[in-house]
């Protein structure tokens, strides 16, 4: 609790109140008699007891001050004595164990409340109450009744009945008793859709209020207006496809088995009070749809209906989700404050970041999300802040979301044993103008790890296979010196229409791309440029194979018609001029790593004539390996497999940049 705040003061007041009540009851027990001071004491006899909203309500008749020898049975009810409605808290009721016909003394400071349009006064603040036990007969009766549990009627009071939501004609309370609340609300069916409750068309602006009022089962007849901050895909466990036409709301139909890719479209939304919620919609039929949803929906207001709570998650259980929420905090415009006037001066941006978030999902067969695509971008929307890679590498924090625009130079599928291909990480080596222009201290190329949980569209995969492309990385994760694409990270081929560059240098590359040369700081799973002198050749590992000169297929077959020619199944044509690839391991001496053994796996593409010549030289032993020793090797683009200190060795592989 905030020091000196209202909550702390209320807590102290409640503690003092409980202490005073306990002390008073202890005094009554130790004295073993009724307190002698009768000034202001209210004496009542209980006629009827029932429970309502955890409060015990006793219909009582006020008694005149009776002599000390008068027992409760002798307290005759006088018709002229006033009828009172006495309220006891749950704790007080458990202490008194009252029943009809019991006489109760209520000590100050009790209060009498006179209700408008009601003839029966209400007695409140009855904490200091005591049951009257005067005669032996009364004590025996108390012991006998104490063996049996008294059943107290509980009146169920509906909030819909309290606010008269079930009857617009105000007929609900007719015929009900003046001193008794009916156990169930009376519902009138008018048979006309125009006379449904007012809440049917009500649009709320608070996610928390909707959750508290509607519960976890589902929202009925109500909507909440929010702003779509982010659109992304998550891997879906159960298959269902969505169909969207034009500007119409998103509708969905559940299917039994969804063909891959089985991904779910999700929205990160924020209400007028700054609270976030993740809305998981039905699965997409194609991951290529994510780019159009990002362009059409992000920054727009929408109305959610028919939602149900899938989970209430916290910061400790969903670090990825809250890292994205933290990147959108604080709000760019003042938000409303719960429980305060919503005047402009009562709105603020000085609020702590959210500590919990509700995961919402749709109920099948209903219209759930209505996005007004014609509406202007909301002032609450925070577009991704685009930074240069050099600026990102200098961020001190951990688990920080970042967005950047980079050129993909090389991609590599991480090979791990016992891990399926679709669950392996992909390494994308990227650069931009901010890195290429750096002289020292910062690498010219950085690796971006794309985890299996990051959904990549088919368009992105095809573009990266075709060649080097500019890719926009939205909401990637930076921490511990690595950039990682995780859940809720989106890769796009086009930069979003709305993004803030914040003064970053986002100019495109003009000259050739340069890699960092191999040196003592080079680490495994990185790329570098290599130069050195050949000091050895591993002839036992050398091999070669022909590939198609059109598609690059490395699995050629003998042509059925002419066994001397090769045939490509992918092109369905005869390959007359195949390109032969050869793998050879060489050992280099590098000045930058003079103490290390540098082993490079070299891939060569050579023509058939040159390959035949080299083959003859090798196998006829007319080619001396010594003739290549001492030869200078120019700049080779390499991928670093491993760097070890015992033995001091660096294993590399020649690569071709996209």
CATH architecture of the largest domain: Beta Barrel
Count of folded domains: 4
CATH fold category name of the largest domain:
OB fold (Dihydrolipoamide Acetyltransferase, E2P)
Percent range for β-strand residues: 25-35%
CATH superfamily of the largest domain: Nucleic acid-binding proteins
Number of strands: 32
Low-confidence stretches: 168-201, 238-260, 606-614, 619-623
Helix content: 10-25%
Protein name: SPIDR protein
GO cellular component, one term: nuclear chromosome
Pfam families: DUF4502 (PF14950), DUF4503 (PF14951)
Organism: Cnemophilus loriae (Loria's bird-of-paradise)
What does this protein structure show overall?
The protein starts with 5 loop residues before the first helix and ends with a strand. Strands 1, 2, 3, 4, 5, 6, 7 and 8 form an 8-stranded mixed sheet that branches. Strands 9, 10, 13, 14, 15, 16, 17 and 18 form an 8-stranded mixed sheet that branches. The protein has 4 domains: 6-21 and 39-65 and 81-131, OB fold (Dihydrolipoamide Acetyltransferase, E2P) (Beta Barrel); 203-235 and 263-332 and 353-382, Nucleic acid-binding proteins (OB fold (Dihydrolipoamide Acetyltransferase, E2P), Beta Barrel), CATH 2.40.50.140; 385-501, OB fold (Dihydrolipoamide Acetyltransferase, E2P); 526-654, Beta Barrel (OB fold (Dihydrolipoamide Acetyltransferase, E2P)), CATH 2.40.50.140. By secondary structure, the protein is of the alpha+beta class. Helix content is 16%, strand content 33%.
């Amino acid at each position: 609790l905030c020091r000196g705040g209202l909550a702390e003061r209320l807590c102290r007041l409640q503690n003092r109140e409980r202490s005073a009540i306990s002390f008073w009851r202890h005094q009554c027990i130790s004295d073993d008699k009724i307190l002698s001071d009768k000034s202001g004491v209210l004496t009542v006899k209980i006629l009827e007891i029932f429970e309502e909203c955890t409060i015990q309500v006793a219909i009582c008749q006020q008694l005149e001050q009776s002599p000390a020898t008068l027992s409760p049975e002798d307290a005759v009810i006088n018709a002229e004595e006033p009828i009172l409605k006495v309220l006891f808290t749950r704790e007080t009721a458990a202490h008194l164990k009252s029943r009809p016909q019991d006489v109760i003394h209520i000590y100050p400071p009790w209060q009498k409340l006179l209700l408008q349009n009601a003839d029966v006064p209400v007695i409140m603040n009855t904490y200091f109450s005591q049951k009257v036990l005067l005669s032996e007969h009364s004590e025996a009766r108390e012991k006998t009744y104490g063996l049996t549990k008294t059943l107290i009627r509980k009146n169920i009071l509906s909030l819909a009945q309290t606010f008269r939501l079930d009857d617009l004609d105000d007929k609900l309370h007719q015929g009900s008793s003046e001193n008794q609340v009916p156990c169930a609300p009376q519902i009138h069916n008018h048979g006309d859709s125009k006379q449904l409750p007012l809440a049917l068309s009500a649009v709320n602006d608070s996610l928390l209020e909707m959750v508290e009022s509607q519960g976890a089962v589902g929202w009925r007849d109500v909507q909440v207006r929010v702003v779509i901050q982010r659109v992304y895909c998550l891997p879906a466990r159960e298959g269902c496809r969505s169909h969207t036409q034009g500007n119409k709301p998103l509708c969905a139909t559940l299917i039994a088995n969804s063909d891959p890719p089985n991904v779910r479209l999700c929205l990160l939304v924020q209400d007028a009070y700054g609270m976030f919620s993740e809305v998981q919609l039905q699965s997409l039929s194609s991951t290529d749809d994510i780019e159009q949803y990002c362009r059409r929906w992000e920054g727009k207001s929408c109305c959610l209906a028919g939602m149900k709570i899938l989970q209430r998650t916290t910061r400790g259980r969903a670090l990825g989700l809250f890292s994205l929420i933290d990147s959108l905090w604080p709000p760019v415009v003042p938000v409303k404050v719960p429980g305060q006037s919503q005047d402009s001066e009562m709105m603020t941006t000085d609020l702590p970041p959210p500590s919990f978030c509700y995961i919402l999902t749709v109920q099948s067969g209903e219209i759930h999300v209505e996005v007004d695509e014609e509406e202007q971008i909301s002032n609450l929307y925070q577009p991704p802040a685009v930074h240069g890679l050099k600026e990102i590498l200098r961020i001190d924090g951990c688990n920080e979301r970042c967005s950047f625009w980079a050129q993909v130079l090389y991609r590599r599928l991480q090979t791990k044993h016992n891990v399926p291909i679709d669950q392996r990480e992909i390494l994308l080596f990227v650069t931009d103008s901010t890195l290429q222009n750096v002289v020292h201290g910062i690498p010219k190329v950085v690796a971006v790890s794309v985890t299996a949980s990051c959904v990549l569209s088919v368009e992105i995969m095809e573009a990266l296979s075709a060649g080097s492309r500019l890719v926009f990385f939205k909401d990637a994760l930076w921490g511990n010196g690595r950039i990682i694409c995780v859940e809720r990270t989106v890769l796009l081929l086009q930069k979003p229409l709305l993004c803030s560059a914040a003064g970053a240098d986002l100019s495109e590359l003009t000259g050739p791309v340069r890699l960092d040369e191999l040196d003592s700081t080079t680490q495994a799973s990185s790329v570098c440029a290599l130069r050195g002198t050949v000091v050895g050749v591993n002839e036992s590992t050398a091999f070669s194979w022909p590939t198609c000169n059109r598609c690059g297929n490395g699995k050629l077959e003998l042509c059925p018609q002419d066994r001397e020619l090769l045939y490509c199944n992918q092109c369905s044509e005869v390959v007359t001029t195949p390109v032969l690839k050869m793998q050879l391991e060489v050992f280099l001496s590098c000045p930058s790593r003079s103490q290390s053994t540098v082993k490079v796996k070299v891939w060569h593409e050579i023509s058939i004539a040159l390959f035949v010549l080299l083959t003859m030289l090798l196998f006829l032993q007319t080619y001396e390996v010594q003739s290549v020793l001492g030869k200078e090797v120019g700049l080779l683009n390499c991928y670093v497999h491993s760097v070890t200190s015992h033995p001091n060795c660096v294993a590399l592989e020649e690569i071709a940049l996209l």
